[in-house]
Amino acid sequence: MVRIWFNHWFSTAYHIIRMMRENEPDFYVIGSNEQPYAVYRACCDEFYQEPRLHGDAYVDYALEFCRDHAVDVFVPRRAMTDISRRKAEFEAIGVRVMADDYENIALLNDKAEAYRVCREQELAIVPEHEIVTDAAAFRRAYESLAETYQRVCFKFVRDEGGRSFRLIDNSPRGYDSLFQFHATRISFDEAYAALSEREKFAPLIVMPYLPNEEISVDTLKTESGIIMLPRIKGVTRVERMTYDPQILTMTEQLVTAFHLEMPCNVQYKYRDGIPYFLEINTRMSGGVQLACLASGVNIPNLAVNKLLDIRKKWEITQREVRVSYIETPLILE
């Protein structure tokens, strides 16, 4: 039996776990989350509520959890950077960790540094951008970029899931705006006022807003090549698989250059037909199940078998198909 632990993941880990266990009767899955009723508990053999810990305190907890529950494979999402920094401690107690080396994860979590490396090594096309740490520099960066580009956006250099992303929108908030979703929109004056509350703030990246399609590439490096499954994401739930040679070339260069051995997700966005590199998430994406269904490649299963030194064959059904999803009700005990 192989005991696999998923710590504090997002809800679509439900699909990742089910795919990982496909045709694997010996896979025993342990789940945990701060929330006692996280949806993926429905497909776990055991489930536990996690304490609210951070940094090294959380890694200490994770090591103890692995010992107490005889974990063989650890699939982390929470505290992945800290866990990767101490990965040798997990390996010393016989735990295989689905995380890349700390140096590469730390670099990719710093979007400014990732952009610098991409530009210097000509790995991918990166958007014009400015890094700022105070309100005055934010104003200068915005005004400079706004002269050339129609719209400007920003987010913190260290971010996950785009939580800090904001599009600067100075249009009047009239009656029609009541029917629009504004969670990611903010006026320049509002943004400037918020940032002015701190003399110095964490590095912020200011860049042109890229208005066209977003491409999310789910990847995994294997001995027989790099799996690359590109999905075009829109404003609806319908996504489209498309195998743009330029996207595939850039993705292969990035995965190779950053020595990424574990599953990851590479994101781009088009502007005027040019795909610009946005970021690499060094974990499986929330939509990996869509790409796997459309392509016939089971990345979660292949990834855990790779950690176990088991090689499995794969072949991509390279079809430009549309794929979507629906909500499914579940009863949680």
Task: Please describe the topology of this protein.
Blueprint: E1 2-6, H1 13-20, E2 27-33, E3 46-49, H2 55-68, E4 73-75, H3 80-85, H4 87-92, E5 96-97, H5 102-109, H6 111-120, E6 130-132, H7 135-148, E7 152-156, E8 166-168, E9 185-186, H8 188-195, E10 204-208, E11 214-222, E12 225-233, E13 239-241, H9 245-257, E14 264-271, E15 274-281, H10 288-295, H11 299-307, E16 322-323
Parallel strand pairs: 1-2, 1-4, 2-3, 4-5, 8-9
Antiparallel strand pairs: 6-10, 7-8, 7-10, 11-12, 11-14, 12-13, 13-16, 14-15
Features:
3 domains, D-amino Acid Aminotransferase, Chain A, domain 1, Rossmann fold, alpha/beta, 11 helices
In whole angstroms, how far apart are the ends? Answer: 25 Å
Mean pLDDT score, rounded? 94
H and E order: EHEEHEHHEHHEHEEEHEEEEHEEHHE
Total discrete domains: 3
Largest sheet features: 6 strands, antiparallel
Looking at this structure, what is the CATH superfamily of the largest domain? ATP-grasp fold, B domain
Radius of gyration, in angstroms, nearest whole number? 21 Å
CATH architecture of the largest domain: 2-Layer Sandwich
Q: Spans of 5+ residues with little confidence (pLDDT < 50)?
A: none
- Tally of DSSP β-strands: 16
CATH topology of the largest domain: D-amino Acid Aminotransferase, Chain A, domain 1
Q: Roughly what fraction of the amino acids lie in strands? A: 15-25%
The global form is globular
- Regarding CATH, which class of the largest domain? Alpha Beta
Instruction: Give the strand line-up of the largest sheet.
Output: 15-14-11-12-13-16
Helix content: 25-40%
Number of helices: 11
